[in-house]
Amino acid sequence: MKKIAFFILFFTIFLLTTKALADAKVMNPGLTYGQLVVLSSEDVMEKTPKFKSLYALSIPVFAELPMELAVVAGAITLKQQNLLSHVQIKSMARKTPNLDISDLENGINNPLFNGLSDGDWVRMELKTDGTIFLSASSEQEANEYARSKKVEKIDLQADMSETTIFRTSDIGWQNFDSVGSKAANYAELAKALNTPEKTIVREGFAIPFFYYQQFINDNPIIAETIQKSLRDPLMKKLSAVSYRENKLKIIQDLFYSEASKINPQLVDALLEKFNTVRDADSIAMRMKLRSSTNAEDLPNFNGAGLYSSESYKPVKKNKERSSQQKKEKIIEALKTVWASVWNLRAYEERMHFGIPHKDVKMGIQVNPSFSKEDVDGVIVTLNAANDPRAVGDGVYIEAQRGDNYSVANPISGIQPDRIFVAVDSENPLDKSSYNIVVLQHSNIANDNETILQDPNPELTMSTDEIKELTYQCLKAENHFRPLLGNNAPDFSLDLEFKVMKDFSGVRNIYLKQARPYIH
Questions:
Q1: What are the tens digits of pLDDT across the range 328-363?
Q2: Range 73-81 average pLDDT
Q3: Residue 169 in contact with residue 193, Cβ under 8 Å?
Q4: CB within 8 Å of 428: residues ≥ 6 apart
Q5: 453 Cβ partners below 8 Å, 6+ apart?
Q6: What is the torsional sign of CA 381, 382, 386, 390?
Q7: Second label for 414, Cα 20 to 30 Å away, from 59, 232, 234, 481?
């Protein structure tokens, strides 16, 4: 009888574990060692000390999807991930395992964990066929594994001689070494797609690396503080996250200080250029200053979400500010973007990839701000859907209504449209061959705000808009492949897009960023 009872118990555990493995989703395969850190919804949303202490040997188990993912050994989420969510994009870029167990019952108490609990050291292996191995390990094994990992060297380039504040139309991808890849790729995207009849990429400006370095050189206390931090051995200790955060905050505070001066000729030149960008009523438009370092949007390192963007706001309460007030706003925006070189998240990511901090230079991409958009989304120019309904070559799109809910950083319970568009691999620019496959509907109402209990049956975009977006992005991929991908057959792009009404009320598709998709 005891043998029968033992067999029944063993078989029951086997069935439960098998179901657990079947319901868990391997988002990004790989092998890792680390310490389980179970984070509640409050830990994630409030960014408690437990959340902030995540580091390179942590394997967090998130009750909610984080808006930012620290450099960790791997990730497990109790909430559903999107394929283009921040956690997944970061996991792919870092080549760290990522597991979605949102469909499992009992979360951390599921048989998948085999009695493992918060604080335990584990070995986690996720395979491409969905096989999952999770077992007990030790801190020593985790450290030995971390030391054994080899990171591909990333060389940073920077031409510090260029002082021109460029218009987007005056540069292209080859200017990446003076303005950064984001600004250079944005300009190249405009060259590839804009026509006299249609604007897909809006005109803007690019501020070169020179002015970031000039700001540091003109403020010796900032330069000295940076040098001291880079020489500090504790800054390299993996677990010293709080120590690094405090040291980096000192650097950033110096950037923001009123005592830190910016070249007045730069501010005057930017004001003159920004004043030329006006809406249909001749009101100065809000501009977005976006980071464009030499350490992001690279073919082997995207650096997504590491650095800060800031808006220049020339109007307050429908009244245009004075020239002096505008200059103050320009200075605030410049300092915010430049200081983000020393964000903790950026510093940690560079440590993980072995990127020398002293070689990082900040350029800035400037473009008119998007406001009150109808649709916000991300598209990759390959079949990244990971869905049996998505068959063959094509593009994968995640799109959301309005600008209240992010696709890249989804809030729990918010679903975007997930769309696969199958294309003819022999003639990918033939719109007539495009076949739209809807994998998931958004659950946001047409007012762009209300969260619905059931999916919205109406897509965020029309059939014509989806096909036009697909066409423009594949056209961009063809243009960029010989420039950034060495004509590799598996080269693809990761692009951000908006759908927004123009001054006459007509909806248009705009692309705001293009970078190589790391997969």
A1: 999 999 999 999 999 999 999 999 888 999 999 999
A2: 91
A3: no
A4: 393, 474, 478
A5: 443
A6: positive
A7: 59
The pLDDT, as a whole number, for residue 499 is 96
Least confident of 1-10, 186-195, 312-321: 1-10
Cβ pair 75, 97 in contact under 8 A: yes
Please give the single-letter amino acid code of residue 196: P
Q: In degrees, to the nearest 5, what angle opens at C-alpha 355 toward C-alphas 353 and 356? A: 150
Domains and CATH numbers, the chain: 2-148 (3.50.30.10), 166-368 (3.30.1490.20), 375-516 (3.30.470)
3-class DSSP state of 517: coil
> What pLDDT shows up at residue 11?
39
- Does residue 456 contact residue 441 with C-beta atoms inside 8 Å? yes
Residue 255's SS3 state is helix
C-alpha of 159 from chain center:
26
DSSP character string of 275-291: TT-B-TTSPBPPEEEEE
Backbone phi, then psi, for 310, in 5-degree steps? -150, 145
pLDDT of residue 8: 41
CA atoms of 270 and 248, how far apart (whole Å) = 28
CA dihedral 219, 223, 226, 232 (to 10 degrees): -140
Residue 300 has pLDDT above 80, yes or no: no
- The per-type count for the chain, helices as H runs and strands as E runs, is 14, 20
The residues, any chain, with a CB within 8 Å of residue 265's CB and separated by 6 or more, are none
Residue-level pLDDT at 409: 67
Calculated CA dihedral for residues 347, 349, 353, 356, nearest 10 degrees: -20
In the structure encoding, which two tokens stand for residue 130, read together? Answer: 């969905």
pLDDT at 18: 44
Dihedral sign for Cα atoms in the order 385, 390, 395, 398 = negative
Structure tokens at 410: 């989804």
- Written as one string, the DSSP assignment of 224-290 is HHHHHHHH-GGGG-TT-HHHHHHHHHHHHHHHH-TTS---HHHHHHHHHHHTT-B-TTSPBPPEEEE
Q: How far apart are the first and last CA of the chain?
A: 53
The beta strand positions in 336-387, using DSSP E, are 362-368, 375-380
Residue with more model confidence, 395 or 85: 395
Total Cβ atoms within 10 A of residue 286 = 18
Dihedrals phi, psi of 92, to nearest 5 degrees: -65, -45
User: What are the tens digits of pLDDT across the range 370-392?
Assistant: 888 899 999 999 998 878 999 99
354/152 Cα distance (integer angstroms): 8
What span, in angstroms and rounded, lies between the C-alpha atoms of 379 and 470? Answer: 8
160-198 confidence digits (pLDDT tens): 999 999 999 999 999 999 999 999 999 999 999 999 999
The encoded tokens of residue 22 equal: 């079947």
Q: Return the bridge partners of 316, or none.
A: 319
Dihedral sign computed on CA atoms, order 153, 154, 159, 160: negative
Q: What are 78's two structure tokens?
A: 């109790």
Once rounded to an integer, what is the mean pLDDT over residues 284-289?
95
Asked if residue 149 lies in contact with residue 137, where contact means CB atoms within 8 angstroms, the answer is no
